[in-house]
Amino acid sequence: MIRVAVLMGGISAEREVSLSSGAMVAAALVEAGYEAVPVDATRDLPALLDTLRRVNPDIVFNALHGRYGEDGCIQGILDWMGLRYTHSGPRASALAMDKPAAKAIFADAGLPVAAHRLVSAEELAAADPLPRPYVVKPVNEGSSVGVAILAEGDNRRAEIAASWPRHEPVMAEAFVPGRELTVAVLGNEPLAVTEIITTRGFYDYAAKYEEGGSRHILPAPLPPEVTEAALAISLAAHEALGCRGASRADLRWDDARPGASGLVLLEINTQPGMTPTSLLPEQAAFRGIPFPSLCARIVREALDAA
């Protein structure tokens, strides 16, 4: 029986989300016929290494989210240990988590991205870096942690700047109006387009993970040419960064513009959530892939690629 260490938890702001993802993955892998061993990654790195050596898995299912789990850090450690693992490797993980670097690669690949600037907290406190409305976000967080929209009349700019971690740049990005879309890529195939509707103003952390925080429309009610373009952009982004396994691209579609010209790629997530409200499992089910089969496929493809 293939033994899978399900790596979960971690030390990022997304620890609780990762614990939920990992628990679901472990149960699904057992149902699919694997031996699944949950491994909680805490701040005690030597203990984590000892646990992985003791478990001696055939493969690690990486269910971590956020810093240190999807930014190339744990991937490098697993490579150093000679352990096979799911999802993207160090380079693609690091590039995807570094939003400005990822956007540069997307732009070079001819993919549509929003204008942005990197500024310090002091610069943000002093003046608007872009015409309003614009979005401010960390350059290396996931799940919309730390994201805020500054519209006309919003006086939170100084407050946001004062709360920003010292020495960390702020990414200011032009706000793209319209509809929130997402596409999961599994292997080398985009699965579907989901439209996300939330009453919270944008798809923030609470909208992602709190029950009732958002509503998913699958398949998204879009003109055929917009659906096809969203699928193509998401696969191209996956390939441009060198991702493997599963990823999820987030896009906006300005439906006031003609056809697919209103599509903008926001970012790509190399460790899509596997929680009860997560989009990858939902799109897989839509394509006829139940959750245990999805987890098994991710493991099997990672084993075959190693």
- Provide the CATH top-level class of the largest domain: Alpha Beta
Shape: globular
Roughly what percent helix?
Answer: 25-40%
At the fourth level of CATH, the homologous superfamily of the largest domain is: ATP-grasp fold, B domain
Which strand-content bin applies to the residues? 15-25%
In round numbers, the mean pLDDT is: 91
Structural class: alpha+beta
Strand numbers in spatial order across the main sheet = 10-9-8-11-12
Distance between the termini: 18 Å
CATH architecture heading of the largest domain: 2-Layer Sandwich
Rg (C-alpha, Å): 19 Å
Q: How many domain modules?
A: 3
Low-confidence stretches: 203-209
Number of strands: 12
Biggest beta sheet summary? 5 strands, antiparallel
Secondary-structure element order, as H and E?
A: EHEHEHHHEHEEHEEEHEHEEHH
Structure description:
The chain is of the alpha+beta class. It is 37% helix and 23% strand. It has helices spanning 15-31, 45-55, 73-81, 90-97, 99-108, 121-126, 157-163, 205-209, 224-241, 279-286, 291-305, and strands at 3-9, 35-41, 59-62, 116-119, 134-138, 148-150, 170-174, 179-186, 189-197, 215-217, 246-253, 263-269. Helix 1 (15-31) links the parallel strand 1 and strand 2 (35-41). Helix 1 (15-31) crosses helix 11 (291-305).
